[in-house]
Queue: 3 jobs
Job 1
Amino acid sequence: MSEIKKIGFGGGCHWCTEAVFQSLKGVISVEQGFLASNDEFSSFSEGVIVAFHPEKINLQLLIEIHLLTHKSTKNHSMREKYRSAIYTFSKEQKSQAKLVLNVLNKQNKNEIITLILDFSEFKASGEAFTNYYYNNPEKPFCETFINPKLKLLLEDYSDFVNQDKLSHLNVASTLQ
């Protein structure tokens, strides 16, 4: 098996982003917290670091899912806190992410505003917030904001979803 890779994603609430990536096959771990890049993007914003097996789930698929599960085509007043970004860990990964984003931008009717940034720093969330969704799936926040994203995964990416982790969602009504 090949080497485990890491990639960072920011865009929406890190509770939501963490749950999305924790639900995928091929993802080894998801660290939730705050990510920063360099220069004008050195301030921290919410995000996750995803460790994954590239032969089980590739970078293109991870980026597609990231763009689908947050507002990747709209600027809003909270962009400083919720920066739409892909944080890369190498020049090769950055080039690959740019290629993927270019292809997806051509397929999308609205321009994708997601930035591709060099990863610089990470600060983990407090333990009370880590694994938030899977510790609290019945909480109103989870039901209102995270469940729709996970149902979207079940509809559009079911082959890549760990069905056991999402068995608590009503899959029958999702697929109708």
Note: The chain has one domain: 5-174.
Job 2
Amino acid sequence: MHDLVAEFAYCAAEASYSSGLTVNALSKDDNRVKELYEKAVQFLSRYQSDDDSILLNPVELDEGFRLAEQYHYFFDHLGPRHPTLEFRPKIKGAGFLGNCFADLSAGDTLYEVKTISRNISGRDIRQLLIYLGLRYASNEPQWEFAGFFNPRRALHYRFSVEHLIFRTSGGKSKAEVFDRLLRFLDARGIELDTPF
């Protein structure tokens, strides 16, 4: 249920931000709670019950709303420097990867949300690099910064994309790394049609 609680918190934070309602107000509205749960379950379909009842117990629901509150603290911390927040920014696919949805765009920064107890891993960094590489291939404005936000640990990291590429590639340029990534994606013959 750990994944479902994390996705529920993400949906609650998104609903709170877009509606202007507090997380506390959302948590007291049974219809909203059900909508949030259904949205989280839709993303994580393995948690759907046979009778459409909410599988999260009251303690897990409370944990989800507490995690959702952390998003607001994070947004307050970002302040006016990131006036536009976008949940689930769509990223055009390339090669065998179809369109993707990242977690959170805050102006010139892409944040991946990791509601985990462990530290960030190489797998998490690779996922972020793929999103950045796909965006590089599009005609859309580029993210100059990237980072991670962990509502469970109330931590966030933000760094320059150029610096990330330089450090992870042994000194190669962003253009060289992303061009190689895109050539790799284009060289494969099948397209994945599942969300990444």
Note: Residues 85-187 form one domain.
Job 3
Amino acid sequence: MTVLAENDLEFDFSSAMEAIIFDDDALHNPSTMKRVDFIAEYTDRCLFLEIKDPDQPGAANPEAFKTKLLTGNLIPDLAGKYRDSYWFRSHSGKVTKPIHYVVLISMASLEPALLLAKQDELKKSLPITHKDWSAPCAAGCAILNLDQYKKQFGANSVRRLSAGG
């Protein structure tokens, strides 16, 4: 069973063939490359997962995060993480399956409608398709809250460590 943690959130990737912490300097050497937090490979797809957790206990400034999201300043950063991660994996010969990019934003005060609007912005910012490309650079892109993530990947796919159990 593969279980990986990002601060106070623990993810169960037991149904994946492989799951790695991709945002790891030991894997990439120190560089300016932006990286998604995790990459999980399944039989039919690859998941690039980026986690933002302003609800974690002791988070420095959740309101600053919310402002960054609302003003649109977070979207270019999220797009850059996908593009750099895709570039690295592609040049490593590891882009062999459709890639789904999921951003988990664990902030209970955000409305799902806002996340959907930001998801549309992210799709445009990546971009997923281009007239000169023979195929899209991603099979899908989603920004989900914690409840949506659990509905998509299973009730036990993620848990908050500080909540126990």
Note: The longest helix spans residues 74-91.
